[in-house]
Amino acid sequence: MDSVSSLMDGQVLLPIIQVDNEHDGVAIAKAMHAAGLKTVEVVLRSEQSAKALSAIKAELPEMIVSAGTIVDEASLNVALEAGADFIVTPAVTEKLLSKLTQCGKPVIPGVSTVADIVLAREHGFRELKLFPAALSGGAGFLKAVGGLFKDTKFCPTGGISQDNYQDYLSLNNVFAIGGTWVAKTDWVVNQEWQKITDACAKVKA
């Protein structure tokens, strides 16, 4: 099975799409695609967001679309039925990790402590999401655990912005960063899609 980092193919930003309708989801994904991005994450917090994920897959079949906020077997099944290419979770438990190892898709399990990292590694995962990154020690935490887990890479998410994302990407154990700042709510409400494209392009550059 491919790793998430290999699917992202050098893309260092995993932009997060938070929507409750298909139209906005597709429009945001198209704006991100216009910046040269090929991988996005859709947060699954409602039935409508799952439909948005499916709509993005249909409208932009070349894009790799992941499902975020997977917290249990029920939300995992929704993500798989919607056609998610890989799975992202905000946290880990023994039961959830067991389900994730059997889902047939690449996964970035969410961790926030050293104990979480060890638990995820015990289930075979070597690419993890630090969440919420800023509140879990940020770049300093990731730098500190780099020596402990030399074969483990991270995609920190939560509290990352235009002002601090370089602090994370400068670390050897960070393969990408996740963020919502590239698709601000007011931009979506006002349908200012070019602003999303420009924000994504800044990180890509």
From TrEMBL:
Which top-rank group of organisms is this from?
Answer: Bacteria
- UniProt keyword annotations, A-Z: Carbohydrate metabolism, Lyase
On whether Lyase is a keyword of this UniProt record, the answer is yes
PROSITE patterns per record: ALDOLASE_KDPG_KHG_2 (PS00160)
Q: What is its EC number?
A: 4.1.2.14, 4.1.3.16
Would the keyword Lyase turn up in this protein's UniProt record? yes
Biological or metabolic pathway of the protein: Carbohydrate acid metabolism
Task: Extract the GO molecular function terms from the UniProt entry.
Answer: (R,S)-4-hydroxy-2-oxoglutarate aldolase activity; 2-dehydro-3-deoxy-phosphogluconate aldolase activity
Locate the coiled-coil region(s) and give their ranges.
Answer: none
What PANTHER family does this protein's entry cite? Answer: 2-DEHYDRO-3-DEOXY-6-PHOSPHOGALACTONATE ALDOLASE-RELATED, 2-KETO-3-DEOXY-6-PHOSPHOGLUCONATE ALDOLASE
> How the protein assembles, per its UniProt entry?
Homotrimer.
Q: Which NCBIfam families match?
A: eda (TIGR01182)
Family membership, please give it.
Answer: Belongs to the KHG/KDPG aldolase family.
The identity of this protein, by name, is Keto-deoxy-phosphogluconate aldolase
